[in-house]
Write a structure and sequence with these properties.
Shape: globular
Radius of gyration: 16 Å
Strand content: 15-25%
Strand order of the largest sheet: 1-2-3-4-5
CATH superfamily: Gcn5-related N-acetyltransferase (GNAT)
Number of domains: 1
Bound molecules: coenzyme A
Oligomer: single chain
CATH architecture: 3-Layer(aba) Sandwich
Helix content: 25-40%
Order of helices and strands: EHHEEEHEH
Number of strands: 5
Largest sheet: 5 strands, mixed
CATH topology: Aminopeptidase
Length: about 170
């Protein structure tokens, strides 16, 4: 990816053509992902009005993405949740992350949500500062548990539990 300081950045919905860049950025986020895994996930998102993936594009390169979805549980509704956000390392500090979050907030508003939540690994102290600066507040700290299902024993991506992985 070329870092062009002056080149304009646009934010738009992801397309299947973005799969290679989306996969590379997911890997940078801490979730090793191949380009072959992304098209089915993007297609599922495109078919579901409760999800959106927006990408930041600069000179035909995807340099960031955000996934946000309407989160409904039995106990609560009205929340949207940011499922993932990443800006390419060489494009950080240019306002791209902020634009992606603002786009997610606008989308959530349009969907009738009244709050947007995001879970961020506590080891990402910089990321906490980023969200606090955008008007988010810390509401709680949680432990995250996982149990493999019997038919998938040994197939979990161990990197999901790396301390620097998101979520
Ligand atoms: C967090 C992340 C998305 C921020 O993207 P970015 O494009 O560099 O952020 P922006 O340039 O839009 O910054 C927006 C504001 O946040 C502030 N900010 C950004 N990174 C910051 C940091 N590390 N510490 C403190 N403030 C920060 C900026 O100063 C800016 O403030 P301003 O509007 O007052 O000028 C990016 O650093 C990233 O991809 N990090 C790794 C992955 C990650 O943590 N994802 C989120 C997981 S939930």
């Amino acid at each position: 990816m070329n870092n062009s300081e002056q080149a304009p950045v646009t934010v738009r919905p992801a397309t299947l053509d973005d799969a290679p860049h989306v996969a590379a950025l997911a890997t940078q986020l801490g979730y090793p992902t191949t380009r072959d895994e992304i098209p089915a996930r993007l297609a599922a998102v495109a078919a579901d009005p409760h999800h959106t993936v927006q990408v930041a594009e600069c000179r035909s390169d995807v340099v960031g993405w955000i996934h946000v979805y309407v989160r409904k549980t039995l106990a609560r509704d009205g929340d949207a949740e940011i499922g993932g956000l990443i800006v390419d390392e060489s494009y950080r500090g240019r306002g791209i992350g902020k634009r992606l979050v603002e786009q997610a907030l606008a989308w959530a508003r349009q969907k009738g949500c009244h709050t947007v939540i995001v879970r961020s690994n506590v080891v990402r102290e910089d990321t906490a500062q980023f969200y606090l600066g955008l008007g988010f507040e810390t509401i709680k700290r949680q432990a995250v548990f996982r149990r493999a299902l019997d038919n998938h024993q040994g197939k979990l991506k161990t990197d999901d539990s790396r301390p620097n992985a998101d979520g």
